[in-house]
Design goal:
CATH superfamily of one domain: P-loop containing nucleotide triphosphate hydrolases
Largest sheet: 6 strands, mixed
Number of helices: 9
CATH architecture of one domain: 3-Layer(aba) Sandwich
Shape: globular
Mean pLDDT: 88
Bound molecules: adenosine-5'-diphosphate, magnesium ion
Oligomer: single chain
Helix content: 25-40%
Order of helices and strands: EEEHEEHEHHHEHEHEEHH
Strand content: 15-25%
Low-confidence stretches: none
Radius of gyration: 19 Å
CATH topology of one domain: Rossmann fold
Number of strands: 10
Distance between the termini: 35 Å
Amino acid sequence: MSESENIVLNVSGVNKTFGGLQALSDINLKIKEGETHAIIGPNGAGKSTMLNVCVGRLVPDSGSVMFGDVPLTGKTPYEINQVGVARVFQTPEIFPELTLLQNVIVPALAKRDGNFKFNAFKPLSAEKELIEEAEHVLEDLGLEDQRHDISASMSRGDKRRLELAMCLIQHPKLLLLDEPTAGMARHDTNRTIEILKRIKSRGMTKVIIEHDMHVVFSLADHISVLAQGAIIADGKPDDVRGNPKVQEAYLGGAHL
Ligand SMILES: Nc1ncnc2c1ncn2[C@@H]1O[C@H](COP(=O)(O)OP(=O)(O)O)[C@@H](O)[C@H]1O
Ligand SMILES: [Mg+2]
């Protein structure tokens, strides 16, 4: 297999400005199939902007994002989701008035049917297989006991896990996660790391934006470091850890 064949996401020459601010400057990234690729960097480095460009929430000023042979640039977030890219945002995006189980069923129906239309004449109980799968995914994430609770009342950490469940039921080829453990207590963080490791063993490709070094070094196969909108280092975790440029930019000289 040639190298180009197993590149799932290819970000090439991406620039993005906000007014006078160069948020992304000539970004080039290749994400390999099956890998967990972490993007790290200080606050304001451009990490979320990068992810938003990949999922169609922001249009780059120039450059392209390819998902296999499919150009993502110019596509809507919905279209990008339909081709097999799912994402967990920094702020959980769930349906607070629905139960956890209903929250997981909605994206599964949207994926299967193209969109989700509420049909009062077809009760959800008719979707037996789908409900079983949704229950299975919730169980996988340790949320099964809460499945009939209204999701508004969940803790922030649980909401983030629910959002992950809503992604997993879509069986995406590529999963993008923006700080999946932000706002979680340490035991919740460790639990999320275990879940993400399990997903990895199923071969799903992941891009993970993360602040928490414990999470990054527990999960990443490859790390790209962003600082002030540019990639300043890229490589295996051990190479990046020892890179003085990274230590200076990211930690003000402290050791990783
Ligand atoms: N919608 C926006 N409008 C204007 N400036 C923005 C917008 N989004 C992000 N920025 C700016 O772009 C820079 C990168 O932001 P962001 O991608 O959120 O960084 P990170 O996720 O690495 O913390 C920051 O200086 C931020 O203030
Ligand atoms: Mg961010």
